[in-house]
Amino acid sequence: MSVANLVFVLGTQRSGTTWLANIFDSHPECLHFYEPFAPAYGIFPYFPDEFTYLEPPATPIAVRLRHDLPRLVDRKSRLFDPVHASRRQFRFEAWLMGGIESWGRRTRAGVPAFAAQFNLLHLNRIGQQPVAYFAKHDPIRLTAIKEVRLYFKLPFLAQTFPDARFIHVVRHPAAVVNSMMNFLQRGRLVEIRDRIDGFPARVGAQPRFEAYRPLLERVARGTLPEKLAAYWRVANETLAADMAAAGSRAYPLVYEQLASDPLARVGDMFAWCGLSMTAATEEYVRESSTSRSQRKTVLDTNRVSATYYRDWVGKVPPEVLKAVESVCAGSPLMAGFAPYYDSRS
To answer: What pairing do the DSSP bridges indicate for beta strands 6-10 and 30-34?
Structure first.
């Protein structure tokens, strides 16, 4: 894998990054990796955790990451060509690796790293039913990495990979916090569940976030929705500021803008990163943004996107809405959502 044509898809949890990941993955000339920095899978065990702001150059980490990132392709398959596996081959391997991981958990023998890492890197595909398959062909022109743990790492990544580009997906905080609360109640988002109580103190202690200390000190004594709203605000505002400093290498994307006119937005985004729209991607975007079928899994991105984004904000419980208004009302990012919600009928 060449690191000369990297695009990082960044954002917080529940912001639409998986849908965008699938859009990139649907392109036959794009190689996609799903959340390789998840700490539980040990692909980059030396990389700082997501709550740590990583200032460049951080040379020892940069050297290791430049060496290890191209080797991600070796973890995409143990049996077949990791880029050009056929539909039958990929679905067989997905079935096999899923079975190995389930066996390891069921017997408590431990999950082999190769199976867990395969399942992670393909989670956007195998998390759908039926399992998604996106055909590839030569040449592979772009490598996309979708990761929700790098919102405090953009300056480091920009210096470590001078040719890399960055997309920041930001979604209305009421939708994000409401979705996260629903997932937490269902026993998901384990990393957030285990660490969100420590977020205010951990982040507030770092020099980069001095301006947020009064807010973080207040929410440290507050409710879970307030802490999640603070997570949304600090992460997205920091990422937005670092994106602005990256200039033409950065592509800010409001999720609601993507949902309102996905084909136009994807075409513009692809042109920015050097890809042309293909029939395969156009078909996927149309299908995933207009589907009225029942969602089978939490990673199934098919939906009626033009109403879906409104629905999540419209059904926010009063306590969540109050927390979001209290924490995020002064965020400069809120202006970006006005065209999509101010005129609701």
So the answer is: unpaired
